[in-house]
Amino acid sequence: MQRRKFINLAALMGLSTIASSSLYATDYRYTKAAAWTANTVDDAIQKMYGDISTIHNGITLGVPKVASNGANVPLDIRSDIPAKSLTIFQNVNPEATVIAYSIHKNSLIDYSLKIKMQEGPGEITVILEGRDGKFYATRKTLIVAGGGCDP
Amino acid sequence: MKIKAKLTNNIVKVKVLAKHEMSTYSQAQKRTGDSSNANFITHLKASIKDEIVFEVSTSQFLSKNPIFKFKFKDGKKGDVLTMTWTDRKGNTKTSKTKIK
Questions:
Q1: Which residue range(s) make up the domain with A131?
Q2: Residue A50 falls within a domain, yes or no?
Q3: In this structure, is residue A2 part of a structural domain?
Q4: Long-range contacts formed by A40-44: CB under 8 A, 24+ apart
Q5: Is the same domain home to A12 and A86?
Q6: Which residues of A touch B27 (CB under 8 A)?
Q7: What is the ipTM of this complex?
Q8: How confident is the model at residue A32 (pLDDT cuts 50, 70, 90)?
Q9: What's the domain count of chain A?
């Protein structure tokens, strides 16, 4: 495990010399490791992007009002804002960061995925890191009716 | 991985199913008594030749056997889409498909 981390880190450092954003692979689990163990959404956002202010515009987030199965909560996200990354957080699981998309030259932000969430009321937060240096955000609440992280 | 990649009006629409247990730390703790047995995909990327078109860093909170749906532009019919995932234990899997 240690050796693999070292090799991946070395590979990332080698890749970082390439200027083109399309060739530059990013593993945020290494470059922003602290964001993945943060327990609260605010802390996770700070660890991922620093102290940012966000514009609440430009991102469409689809979540069910009531998710019947906490093991498979469907989300969809769309945006036309030219972006570097987009990260999804939620406030009910032990750690807040769910997934971080690296946006490349030909990537379009039109994603669907299914996530695990613990039972009860919850909130999804999406932060988009714009190429214009600004951050955009949206939030939606939902109720998770059953299932969840633990079988 | 089961990958479907279809080109319509200069946009390639992709749906990929990655077979993976995506076990969380608490699931591993409950099932095996040791949370360090947790294993989930941590990184996944899709490229055409050297050009990355989709890339994610992921957590234990994606559903089991996760399905990713995404889109990108400037792909052509017949282009080979190569996808690779890496998981927490260092396993990797690469699959390819042609854009239809």
A1: 34-144
A2: yes
A3: yes
A4: A40/A91, A40/A96, A41/A89, A41/A90, A41/A91, A41/A96, A41/A123, A41/A125, A43/A96, A44/A89, A44/A95, A44/A96, A44/A97
A5: no
A6: 149-151
A7: 0.96
A8: very high
A9: 2
Q: Which residue, among A108, A112, A150, would best test binding to B if mutated, counting the most B CBs under 10 Å from its CB?
A: A108
The residue-averaged pLDDT of A86-97 equals 97
CA distance, residue B54 to nearest chain A CA (Å): 6
Q: Which of A90, A94, A107 sits opposite B54 (nearest CB)?
A: A107
Cβ contacts of B78 within 8 Å, gap of 6 or more: B98, B99
Query: Cα distance from A56 to chain B (closest Cα, Å)?
Result: 23
Tell me if B72 and A107 make a contact (CB, 8 A cut-off).
yes
Q: What are the pLDDT tens digits along chain B (100 aa)?
A: 999 999 999 999 999 999 999 999 999 999 999 999 999 999 999 999 999 999 999 999 999 999 999 999 999 999 999 999 999 999 999 999 999 9
Q: Structure pTM?
A: 0.90
> Could you tell me the residue ranges of all domains in chain B?
2-98
Q: What is the CATH number of the domain that holds A51?
A: 2.60.40.2470
* CA angle in degrees (0–180, nearest 5) for A102-A106-A108: 70
Interchain contact, A104 vs B54, CB within 8 Å: yes
Average pLDDT (A59-63) is: 98
Pick the CATH number of B2-98 from 3.40.1080.10, 3.40.640.10, 2.60.40.10, 2.40.50.320: 2.60.40.10
Residues of A with CB under 8 A from a CB of B: 1, 4, 22-29, 36, 71-73, 90, 93-95, 97-102, 104-108, 110-117, 149-151
Q: Does B16 touch chain A (CB under 8 A)?
A: no
| Nearest by Cα to B16 from B49, B45, B39 | B45
